[in-house]
Amino acid sequence: MGAEVPEEPAAFAPFPCLSTLRIYDSRWCGLRRDLLRLHTGREQEHHVIEISDAVAVVPVLEDGRVALIGQYRYVHGKTHWEVPAGRVSPGESARDAAVRELREEAGLRAASWNPLPGFYPINGISPHFAHAFVAEGCSVAGEPEPEDSEQLVRRFFTRAEIEGLLDAGRFADAFTALCLAYWLRRTARPG
After folding, report:
1. Which CATH superfamily does the domain covering 54-186 fall into?
2. What pLDDT was estimated at residue 111?
3. Computed from CA positions of residues 136, 142, 146, 147, in that sequence, does the dihedral angle turn out positive or negative?
4. Is pLDDT at 149 greater than 90 in this prediction?
5. How many C-beta neighbours within 10 Å does residue 188 have?
6. Taking the model in full, what pTM does it have?
């Protein structure tokens, strides 16, 4: 038996939004400036970045290895290991987006899907939410099919390698670190 899980803190009353000003919109993100009335009565601006929801997938192969992609990220100029992840398109379910991202970024298909806890990666400035999944029984369906703006390579890692990378703090991508930590906590170590 596990320990009792503590409840969330009691909800605070939301700050009333007095006005909203659209600052920027694109197909990738939006930015708005809300004027809030704080609990003290004082007014304060709050900038909100609007990003569509995302998915992140821990792909576990039939032999227990995990597929990761080495991906170049323009914003900081580095390449590091990540789980397949991407945006949920309008009208698309999170699971369908996960299936699509697994195929496009890792060239894999899964026998079954299990949800992991989702999370708000930047909840101080955005309602952006990430839906997380474990794709079990993955098999190679082909080569990755990256978008023009993506540079990536696929590699398979043992559980011990994943644990070593996580313990060494080598996963710079928060989606990856959190999803792999959840997966490791929920799966028994073999043998």
Report:
1. Nucleoside Triphosphate Pyrophosphohydrolase (3.90.79.10)
2. 98
3. negative
4. no
5. 5
6. 0.91
